[in-house]
Amino acid sequence: EKGGYEHFMLKEMYEQPKAIADTFSPRIKDGRIEIEELGMDDEAIRAVKKIVIVACGSAYHTGMTSKYIFEGMARIPVEVDLASEFRYRDPILTDGTLVIVISQSGETADSLAALREAKEKGCKVLGIVNVVGSSIAREADNVMYTWAGPEIAVATTKAYSCQLIALYLLAMKFAHVRGTISEGELAEMIEDLKKLPAQVEMLLNNKDRIQKFANRYLAAKSIFFIGRGIDYAISMEGSLKLKEVSYIHSEAYAAGELKHGTISLIEDGTLVTALLTQENLYKKMISNIEEVKTRGAFVMAVTNEGHSDVEKAADYVVYIPKTNKYFTNSLAIIPLQLFGYYVAVGRGCDVDKPRNLAKSVTVE
Ligand code: M6R
Fold first, then answer.
1. What is the ipTM of this complex?
2. Residue 156 CA, ligand 1 centroid: distance in Å
3. pTM greater than 0.95 (yes/no)
4. Helix, strand, or coil (residue 269)
């Protein structure tokens, strides 16, 4: 049932182009974003004062990405919280707060408890869920499904990618209704969304090059990921992918935090993966690359096509094709998924079922 792939993780990575298209296609009609299952008319969308996103693990990372998108595109304040933190801190949920719970399985105990807490406090809860009919899907006021299909590998790839798409669609809908993007901008974004499946496919087809590179790091002690803004959120997911399947210690840092302590961890030969997909933060990131290189780091950079000047600062560069600045996560994550996967394969790890982890965390 692995369809010729060595692992479910690789198979599911390869299912991403289709899963992404399946998630956006039914929600784009006549150049408009239609999310009927949202259960909110334009007036209700305009009345939202704040969004609170609650999730665990990779789903939390998609929430982090969407904070930058909702705030940047739709100008709505967003708080993102880990479900296990949210539920125990008696959160302040004021009138006009929309709570979004993101979960692949729909069964994560802490996310479900957070949903109940939010409902009890009188908030409307929207679930972004992959498993149809799961507990979170049943208990949320409204459900927006990600159409990734069944995901078997413990490390999420295609469900993560679909969660991003669902969140892009929501942000676009909110931004359009609230008038923070123009008709033209919306049309352009829809065009860029439609290009994502083929672009993801292209990045997947680069797998041999990533594998070769990954094989150089099978004995690494620690690997770091740095970025700013959306690139910081991408770093968090890249780091989680690597550590959960390969058991190599890895951390993600907001690049601006390096100087506040973490740069002391860089040694000769330490691999630092730098994300540079946000043009406005590009120069700052180049300085961060130079800082870690001075301390002996080897830098792999993931950046936008056309930025060949990054090759002057970084040792190894992976390019992602051109897309909207809010959608770069969908592309930049592909080489990072492949990297984590191939490091784990090279180390002989049980890629689909990493030690100590379960696909759905139904206990607290
Ligand atoms: O089913 P959920 O999306 O609620 O699961 C949340 C996390 O347990 C999950 O994303 C976990 O971090 C993955 N193993 C990451 O690949």
1. 0.98
2. 7
3. yes
4. coil
